[in-house]
Amino acid sequence: MAHYLVIVESPAKCKTISKYLGKDYTVKATMGHIIDLPEKEFGVDLENGFKPKYTVSKGKSRVLKVLKDEAADSDMIFLAPDPDREGEAIAWHVAQSISKSKTKIKRVLFNEITKNAVLAAIEKPGEIDMNKVNAQQARRILDRIVGYQVSPILWRTVFRGLSAGRVQSVALRIICNREDEIKAFREKEYWSLHAQFSCIDRLFWTKLISVDGKKVDKYELPDAASVRSIIDRVQGKQFSVIDVQRTEKSRKPFAPFITSTVQQEAARKLNYSATKTMIIAQQLYEGLELGQLGSMGLITYMRTDSTRIADEAITSARGVISTLFGGRYVPDAPRVYAKNKNAQDAHEAIRPSQVSLDFAPDKLKDYLSKDQYGLYELIWKRFLASQMPNALFDSTRVDISANSCVFRANGSIMKFDGFLALYDEAIEDSPDGIESEDNDRLPELTMQSQCALQKMLDKQHFTQPPPRYTEASLVRELEDKGIGRPSTYAQIIDTLKRRKYVNVDAKRFFPTEVGLMVKDILVRQFADVFDIGFTATMENSLDKIEMGQREWVSVLKEFYDPFQKVMENVKLNIKEIKAKNQEVTQRTCPECKKFPLVIKWSKNGKFFACQGFPACKYTEPLEKIAPMPSDEICDKCGAPMVILTINGKRFLGCSKYPECRNTKSLSTGIACPREGCTGFLIERRTKRGKIFYGCNTYPKCNYATWDKPVAQKCEKCNFPILVYKETKSKGRINRCPNCKTEYPIPDVPAAV
Questions:
Q1: Looking at the domain assignment, is residue 141 inside a domain?
Q2: How far is CA 433 from the centre of its chain?
Q3: What is the rounded distance in angstroms from the CA atom of residue 284 to the CA atom of residue 727?
Q4: What is the rounded distance in angstroms from the CA atom of residue 677 to the CA atom of residue 127?
Q5: For the chain, N or C: smaller number of CB within 10 Å?
Q6: How far is CA 448 from CA 233, 238, 240, 395, 716, in A?
Q7: Which residues pair with 439 in a beta bridge?
Q8: 376 is an active site residue
Q9: pLDDT for the residue numbered 434
Q10: SS3 647
Q11: Is residue 227 included in any domain, yes or no?
């Protein structure tokens, strides 16, 4: 009996695809890349046509051995990683690694993990697309060149551990540029004037739009006096209608999701980060257990830049819409959306893989997590809405004038909801927050109709700076400028957060001091490499490699030759660059008394250091809270120890510093509760800075608790300590970590 091997990228797909193909097929996963550039060396031969040195990825030797063993027993091998550049590169590396086998190897592509799609792909296998492989290879080598050669410049001028990714640094530059705009912004006062009229027994609001034929924008009324002059000018005058326009306006539905738009909309409507959105989308694509429906993928491939939809999916969507809403909600012809100028159009838009009411979100809710359901419902509704008719509105615009001052009212009534019956996109607020004078309905006014002025309302406003980027607006900006590609947006944003180049507050990106410094160095020293336009051009070059229009080595050479010259110049001036990033203070080093102290950076923030380093290694925190006395005695010199707080971390330090530099963790004074242990619980921190309490004899004793220990025995089980907790529902309590008994803490009455 024939035996076939199918190799996919993710283990989550194995179970689903195995059910579709039957017992003659074995499905194995690479679990990502099995071959890559080495972790701890450059791995690119710059003198020999940028030849890469590929090695087995860390931890993948066993995976590769399993694939080789399975390949040796197979009559045919189908390579089925994801249908993009990365997936094509994985397929190529697998083929190269098992090429000693004489077994026939074919490439298959799944745009959706459904039975029909999988069987159709197996029946018509193809070959590995070397253009895609070369595009991925060029990107990988390009990023390795920039990362390995520019990052050490940051290490030598700021501190070790910083990175200078080719695309992430441009995204950082965009965020920092916006911060510069905000700092440079100067607030301006302006006013608006609104008038309420009555006509035909109906009240409605208007807004001043012109005076003496000149349009009034927000700078034409700079202060209260200018508004007062208009009010005096029209007070007691007769107002009449000078223009009426009635039109039917339509609003088109939004195109189905692509990678960037699903990240933006999930951020706005579901409060998901780009990374979270892509993780959940991957789960929906790879396949989930759906009870009697079996295991299958619920959406098409989620890394795409195309709004194209398969004809059969459109036909099914029209049937579902008709069933749900009736024939009025099915347009005469299917909708086709224009192709984005930068789109590769390799895959369909993101849509439900099964377009039928049996797979409606509500029918599958019991099988999905809350996050999976939220994203699936968003994709489902957006796709169906994209094939529904326009929403129609009766719109009326009326201009009313007195003494050459024109006020305008807008009225709009929905006459047919169309796609809005199912879905409406979330819109971010306008930064200036200017309200328009929109009324639900206006009276039937005609030319020369007389209107009675009821009251006037003047409003003071202030111009607002441009808003900081959210994840949604940053993704949109990257897409608009051609920076990165759909599969990279989440990774770019995640890297900026992880490197602490940016902080997120109220969903907005704020560059950190380190981020601003990194941006300044990179832009100053590598102006072209980290130029927004240059990076977009490089993305286009990679796309051309994929389309077979450029040769990958020539693209790399075109980049590297000028880049190398810049690198040589930077290395010659490294001391000068470093000096610019160190502030020399007027304080003399208290240890060597020869050199001034300078302000340097480390991964924990700024600190003072002697300019005579390495001869003098004196350092001192830049900011520290005054030490507090403790009962501890230094076990090295016998002096009292004090409680120090530096960079938010509390610990014990010798009071004779710098003569004695002994430090140790802060003790709670509470004995470790583990039976037989003679240690004490001390305050400790995880690598990410989260406080916990553990035994000071670790690793001999590994007792630890997240909650602050309390020196009180449990009355129920006699456990030697309790822990302090505070919740909204229960307030302040002490809880036994052993039997979970809770002891409420009474509030102390305020002094009268």
A1: no
A2: 25
A3: 35
A4: 65
A5: C
A6: 20, 11, 5, 20, 87
A7: 411
A8: no
A9: 41
A10: coil
A11: yes
Which one, of 701, 698, 617, lies nearest residue 664 by Cα? 698
Enumerate residue ranges in the chain where pLDDT < 70.
1-2, 100-101, 218-219, 341-346, 426-438, 604, 623-626, 646-649, 687-689, 728-729, 746-752
Look at residues 517, 417, 408 and name the one whose alpha carbon lies nearest to residue 173. Answer: 517
Residue 558: domain span = 150-185+467-575
Q: Say how many CA atoms lie within 13 Å of 498 toward its Cβ.
A: 12
- If asked whether residues 210 and 303 sit together in one domain, one would say no
The separation between CA 661 and the C-alpha centre of its own chain, rounded to angstroms, equals 42
Pairing of strands 605-610, 619-621: antiparallel
Would you give the distance in Å from CA 347 to the centre of its chain?
A: 23
Residues 735 and 700 in one domain: yes
Tokens of 689: 């800075």
Same domain, 356 and 308: yes
Rounded to whole angstroms, the Cα distance separating 506 from 576 reads 38
CATH value at residue 47: 3.40.50.140
Hey, what amino acid is at 149? Q
User: Which one of 301, 329, 469, 489 is the catalytic residue?
Assistant: 301
Query: Does residue 380 share a domain with residue 268?
Result: yes
| Contacts for 109 with CB less than 8 Å, ≥ 6 apart | 80, 83, 121, 126
Q: Work out the widest C-alpha separation in the chain, in whole angstroms.
A: 98
Separation of alpha carbons 269 and 565, rounded Å: 47
Cα angle value 402/406/408 (rounded, 5°)? 125
Place of tokens 């000149």: 214
Contact call for residues 511 and 179 (beta carbons, < 8 A):
yes
* Cβ pair 379, 351 in contact under 8 A: yes
d(CA 525, CA 153): 10
Could you tell me if 423 and 456 are in contact, meaning their C-beta atoms sit under 8 angstroms apart?
A: no
Q: 């938010």: which residue's tokens?
A: 648
Q: Report strand pairing: 438-439 vs 405-416.
A: parallel
Give the predicted TM-score (pTM) of the model.
0.75
The number of angstroms, rounded, from the C-alpha of 575 to the middle of its chain's C-alpha atoms is: 36
Cα–Cα–Cα angle for 706, 709, 714, nearest 5°? Answer: 115
3-state secondary structure 143-173: HHHHHHHHHHHHHHHCCCCCCCCCCHHHHHH
- How does pLDDT run across 642-695, given as a tens digit for each residue? 888 766 567 888 988 878 888 887 778 899 999 889 888 988 877 666 788 999
Inside any domain, residue 634? no
User: Position 715: which residue type?
Assistant: E
Structure tokens at 161: 């551990």
Q: What DSSP string describes 307-339?
A: ----HHHHHHHHHHHHHHH-GGGS-SS---PPP
What type of residue is 396? T
Which residue stretches of 547-624 are H helix?
552-572, 574-580
The predicted pLDDT at position 427 comes to 61
